[in-house]
Amino acid sequence: MTDGLVNTSGLPALPDEIYLEIVSHLPSMPIPTLNRCSLEDESHRDRHQTLLALTQTCRHLRRVFLRHLWQRIEVYDCMQTSKGHLAMTYPRLLPGRPPVNLAHKGHAVELIRQLETVIMREPSFSLYVSILNVSVLEYSAKTVLEELARCIALLPNLHTVQLSFTLNFDSYQFLDELFGKYNYPQVRNACLSDTASQFLLACPNVCSVNAFMSENWDGSIGDIFLPPSLEILCTIPFQQDAISNIVKQLPNLCEVTLDPTLLLLGFDQLKPLSTLQHLHTIRLALNVHPPRRYFMRLPGHRILYKPGRDITETAQWVEWAKNILARTPPQDSKRVILVDKHGQEETYQVC
Fold first, then answer.
1. Residues 67-118: pLDDT tens digits?
2. DSSP string, 211-256
3. Edge to edge, what strands does the sheet with 189-192 contain?
4. How is residue 35 annotated by DSSP?
5. For the segment 236-286, what is each residue's pLDDT rounded down to a tens digit?
6. Parallel, antiparallel, or unpaired for β 160-165 and 189-192?
7. pTM for the complete prediction?
8. CA–CA distances in Å: residue 95 to residues 91, 104, 292, 297
9. What average pLDDT does this structure show over 118-126?
10. Torsions phi, psi of 309, nearest 5?
């Protein structure tokens, strides 16, 4: 045995680049989450627990990895927690309202634990949080949502929020009142389930809005708060005059997604998009499924709704989108992105 100094304070310090390399090998759930493959991918489920373990290894690693641990507040299906994996709740195939399920208690407990850590126990950690990715289920939903809404206002660097709500009560008025009394000017990007769309009431500066799991929202565009600051809109609730309403409400729109429910309205209904002065990208999303109310409003479309059933129809939609972009003011790069039913993308440049 040598008489040299013995390291009793922990692991030796390494360059920051090495630590960043370690973090890069801990995959995270992609946000926005737009398909089941991303939701069911097991590679990201242990990220939180792995980073937590690294912060508990020694004082030096705690300092390095804390900001990565609390960069995200996440609670989602099958995520690994200190008490085991959370339950799988998606897809929710049963019709009607879901029953209260005690197996879903874990989602609520884990969310409250994380919020308490960054807001009450270690308030300095709140500065690290930039991404919120949360599923709220029916267990103690009102209490959990009230605490979540309160805490979001205390996260000054939060810029991206993904919310999925599965609730066993008529939530519209409750959520309308809940988020209507808050203001989250820091939030720039939102990916929301249909039941969470009222979150936008509190986001006056949001720039990008997506639909969780590419599931189109019910309701009408007039029922949803979309601030004039919005630049990227990746979901448009179906209604006959949806496009004309979009043009009136969102003068700064740069990118818009059209699903088959809108494309089947015909070119004349879509043409007003050409008046948007900043529009440079149209995404044709053939992988988006229509909401139930779509067929309730247009029963005949249950038979007609076979979008992209032949190459000719899809090619026609691409040409419509090109035509619209050709009429907008000159931009550095105009493009049409076709997303097939499997989520594969093909890009067409517009001169």
1. 877 889 999 887 777 776 677 776 554 444 445 566 688 899 999 999 999 9
2. EGGGBPP-S-GGGS---TT--EE------TTHHHHHHHH-TT--EE
3. 72-75, 131-136, 160-165, 189-192, 208-211, 232-233, 255-258, 281-285, 334-339, 345-350
4. S
5. 877 778 899 899 999 999 999 998 888 988 999 999 999 999 999 999 998
6. parallel
7. 0.84
8. 12, 18, 11, 19
9. 94
10. -70, -15
Write out the two tokens for 133: 């990715």
Going from N- to C-terminal start, the domains of the chain cover 28-43+72-91+101-215, 218-351
- Nearest to 118, CA basis, from 155, 74, 82: 155
| pLDDT per residue as tens digits for the range 203-239 | 999 999 999 988 878 766 767 888 999 999 998 877 7
Nearest 10 degrees: Cα torsion 58, 63, 69, 70? 140
Q: How far apart are CA 327 and CA 214, in angstroms?
A: 28
Please report the pLDDT score of residue 118 as a whole number.
Answer: 94
Among 127, 117, 183, 114, smallest CA distance to 155 is for 127
Asked if pLDDT for residue 134 goes beyond 50, the answer is: yes
Per-residue tokens: 42? 């097991």
Phi, psi of 261 (to 5 degrees): -60, -35
**55 pLDDT above the threshold of 90:** no
Q: Which of 255, 259, 215, 252 is nearest to 230 (CA)?
A: 252
Q: Is the peptide bond between 260 and the residue preceding it cis, with omega within 30 degrees of 0?
A: no
Q: Which of 219, 199, 215, 198 is nearest to 296 (CA)?
A: 219
